[in-house]
Amino acid sequence: DDPLSTRMLWNRVSYVRRFGELVTYELTVPVGWPGEEGSQPLFGVADPGGLPGASWVVRSRLRTRREIKAAGPEDRVYKLCWAAQDEGKQKYYADVGEIKFRNPIGMQEAKVYLTTQEVGATAPAVLSMTPVRGHQAYRNLEAPIVLRILFRDTLGKLEPLVSGELTEDLEPIDPEDEVLPAGASQAICGRLFAEMWTNDMGGFPLPRGCYYGPLHEDLPGILPDGSLETVPAYREYFVVFEPKAGLKAECRDARQPGRATLCVYMFVLNARVGGDLRIDEEAAGMYTLCDGSASACSGFTDMANVIEYGEGLPSRPGLQSSSEAARLRRVDVAPRGALKWGWNATEGLEDPLELLPDYIEEGTLRELIDLDIRAWTRDPTRPIQRESTLKVWFTPFGAWDLGFAEDCEALCEPPEGLSCSDGRGGNKSTCSLISVMEGGTASQLLLPKNVLWLVYPKAMDTIPSNRSKESHLLRVSKLALPSEGFFPRHFLAQITDANNEFPSSALLSVGYKRIPLLSTMRGSILVEGQAASGPEPFVEYRENALVLRLTLGVTLRSMALSPPSPPVDSGDDDPNATTTTLPVNESTLTTTTSLVTTTPWPGVPAAYLELELPPGYECFIVDLGGAYTEGAEELFARDENGDGYFDNFNQTLNNGHWTTDRNLCRFTLEMYAQIFAGQTFYVQLFVNNPRQALLRDDPENVWYIKYFGTNGTVLGPPARFISFEEEPLDLGWVGNLAVLTPLVGENLQPERFEYGADNRLRVFFEAVHFMLAQSYIVLDAPDDFDFGAECVVSDLGVDYYADWESIAWGSDLTGEKATTSTIGPSPNCTGDNWKRLARSPPATENFTRAIIRVSRTLLTGKYYGFAIDVRNARSYSMEQHDNWRIWIWSPEGYPVDGSIRTVFFNAPRTFAGTPDSPFERSWAVYPRPLNSSNLTVDFGGPQVLPTQTAMMLATLTLFPIIVSQDGGLVDLRLVAPAGFEFEPTAGFEGKVPGKTCEPECILIADPRVYYGNELVLANLVIRIGKSYGFQVRVRVPNRSPARSSNNFFLELGFNANDTEWSDATRARLQGG
């Protein structure tokens, strides 16, 4: 009856039924008591509020943490019981059911590879995992995939340490420290791992981020003596990969390009070897998990969302060193001849020492080096014995491939008076080159050989204790240097006795660095836009959005705090600040502007990556530089080889921040952040184009990648983006961009306007650059126009190229008095589709691009004209008023000049701004041709004199105008050849005396004239079966037009976007 107490009823509780009806306010508990009727105890219950009754809470399902750990074997059955905290103790009342734990589906292989086996030593350890080949989860899951690494016993087996140089004081992460999944970042990956590598030719996928849990311990049991048992501590690391853009179950081998094979993923971390490390006991379990809802992971995982599990057994056990065996003090390794005899063998050597080749191997072009190695022991009374094994691990493991086993040669050179005999009359030492992941999947794959394994000669003399400042010298020949580079680091060495026991490890006495070959530093720009130079390719254009793909040939690691991202500031208070205002381009529809402020950089201790653009550019990056252009979206959705994985992973750096200064964009890494060698990532870069045109082959048009280690350490020269020679091997990517000059005076007119007609276009433009013969003129049309796979180009009529009557017109080669010229004899023309991406196969239909190779030079300032056949689009679209362009390419196929806007239909408009109305820009198709076959433009005779000669205006008669449909108002447009000018009389009446019926055939309109040669009659009523016409005065030019078509064009419904009248809309009727 205590209202403050809570009791749990462990029995089944049911509602009461009376007379077949359910009574929901009464409960029955099936519990019986012995004794006679009436002897059962009475129960009273009280509500916490003091009222009769009780508050009931139903406990009908198990609620627990997500993680439940089973300590016993896989097949053990565990009971679940109902229990309650009753009077301060947990009491168990009844069985609920049973639970059995089972291991997930096993991986192909998971392994822990040690470097040194010395217990207590700090050294790199390699965690390697190989998914089951062809596992569908990796290619089909739409949710992120998480790699969970469970270190089973951090004190007894393997204790993970933070990343860093082995010369540093490396410690484990604080036991209580943890990062939740929401805080995952790439910088944390850099703190946990020293290296990530895969055998896939695409390189190791850039993770979304990493996180980790605290150090866990099980509750210890009580031993018979009352003491608590010792329990292992364990910890979890997590690596998050993007959906279909991370781990694979089938790879293309980087060492055998194109060959499908198993995938090997290597994670290198610093670790401390424990004394309980056994080859038959798991050291680090590896699980791949689907990080999504049950429905998202359904069909590919078990109930715990586990895809695969790998039992990470160590490749070798931990071994104790011995004071009775040789223990390393240091190991000297240097290029041939650099080591001196005696204790100070490295005196005078630079530290770090740059590794340079001694010679280049013919055929393979591998860079080879010869090394001298001398090991020193701590105790002169415990020298290195014959047949002892000396191993040297060359890191980064993914960079080094020392060569083939048969390449390795080692000779032992003893101090004076001692022997290095191998027992066979020579002084050879056994030399082997192996992989740090030797064994297992290594037997099926060509893994890089990154461990030098040397065995001292069989009959070698040991160094007497009184000659402790002397040591045997091992001369190793023909080791291959890596193409990738690395910042200064110390390699690890280990000595074991003749039985491969009693290991002792030490760092090499000198640090080493390697400048990467420029071929490993790759930068390229995604080919986008109609001109293949971004969406805004012209001089002085702003906010040209580019997508860059970058791969580093060196691991960039930051072990210093980077400054915070600079605030956006006006710069008024800082006289050294530079402010860049980014106005919106003419073609941009928005009305916003961007403002980027940059300040000069102080000395920055953190590592950083820098992009240097050619002079005249200004670059800026929004947020982390994620790539979101239209071309990038298509790029990241491609699977050209059909293997189920994206060919390009949309990987963005999130472990630092970007800053900009004119033509420099810098990414500064956070503390612990790393960009691993061979990883590919993408950056969306916005640029303000230079004020001057920039050709692709201009010597100054070079884009560079620069990289600087902590404290500004420089490793090698800047690396250029990919070369012209490399571009054909990497379709869709280029090493620089052209900055284009706008064309002048370009215009084009059709002969036919109707849907689907076989048409001929007359095209005119003025060259703005001198172009060599074999250059290209490229004409782009809107969708559904078709030039054909082999397009047909011809000259215009001879009048367009004529010098009339030898008058002054035409006397100049270029300029206003120059004639229009042909583009040369027999131009070659091929069709393509201008929307086709550069990395896509050639077009086989919808040839909207004509690529015309011309056989003559093009002169600056001279007009050119030609005709080209095209099949008209089969329907009307508003885009047809905006998607006509002319481009000029160099003989190499690089863009030089182009149309800054759509090519106009009416030539005089070319020299004005872009009209707001699309109907005043380029021409577009009509559903029908002009309905009258005898429609004429009549000047009253076979010839018309120029107004200047005739001393009077000419009268133009247009008749008959006949329509094939009616039902609404129509706007009429008559476009005369360039140079003609309409001058309607006051009181204009739209009729032709003696020909048009009156009054119903009179066109009532107020004529409007635009650009002199466009006459518009608006809001006309024209009926079927009637013949209409009108007369208008015209000023005639001194000569026939030669820089646009010498034709009149009549359009009915020119400003309508529909082919039928509907409500207040106007119909697009016919044109010709």
Q: Give the biggest sheet.
A: 6 strands, mixed
The oligomeric status of these chains comes to single chain
What amount of the residues lies in strands?
25-35%
Q: Which class do the helix and strand fractions yield? A: mainly beta
Number of strands: 66
Account of the 3D structure:
By secondary structure, the protein is an all-beta fold. Helix content is 2%, strand content 32%. The chain contains 5 helices and 66 strands. Strands 5, 6, 8, 9, 15 and 18 form a 6-stranded mixed β-sheet that branches. Strands 7, 10, 11, 12, 16 and 17 form a 6-stranded antiparallel β-sheet that branches. Strand 21 and strand 22 form a beta hairpin. The longest helix is centred in the N-terminal third of the chain and has 7 residues. It is flat, with a radius of gyration of 41 Å. It starts with 13 loop residues before the first strand and ends with a strand. About 5% of the residues have low confidence.
Descriptive tags:
mainly beta; flat; six-stranded mixed beta sheet; 5 helices; six-stranded antiparallel beta sheet
Write the layout of secondary structure elements.
Layout: E1 14-18, E2 21-28, E3 77-86, E4 89-100, E5 109-114, E6 122-130, H1 137-140, E7 145-151, E8 158-160, H2 186-192, E9 195-198, E10 209-212, E11 216-217, E12 233-241, E13 251-252, E14 260-261, E15 265-273, E16 284-290, H3 294-297, E17 306-310, E18 313-314, E19 328-335, E20 353-354, E21 359-360, E22 367-377, E23 389-393, E24 409-413, E25 420-421, E26 430-434, E27 451-455, E28 459-460, E29 473-480, E30 486-489, E31 492-496, E32 504-507, E33 512-514, E34 522-526, E35 544-551, E36 556-557, E37 578-582, E38 594-598, E39 608-612, E40 618-620, H4 630-635, E41 656-661, E42 664-669, E43 674-675, E44 680-688, E45 704-708, E46 719-720, E47 733-734, E48 741-742, E49 744-750, E50 758-766, E51 776-780, E52 793-794, E53 828-832, E54 849-853, E55 863-871, E56 885-889, E57 895-898, E58 936-938, H5 947-950, E59 954-961, E60 970-975, E61 981-982, E62 1008-1010, E63 1014-1020, E64 1028-1035, E65 1049-1052, E66 1070-1071
Parallel strand pairs: 5-18, 20-33, 48-57
Antiparallel strand pairs: 1-2, 3-4, 5-6, 6-15, 7-12, 7-16, 8-15, 9-15, 10-12, 11-12, 13-14, 16-17, 19-22, 21-22, 22-29, 23-27, 23-31, 24-29, 25-28, 26-27, 30-33, 31-32, 34-35, 34-47, 35-44, 36-43, 37-38, 39-42, 39-45, 40-44, 41-42, 45-46, 49-50, 50-55, 51-54, 51-56, 52-55, 53-54, 56-57, 58-59, ...
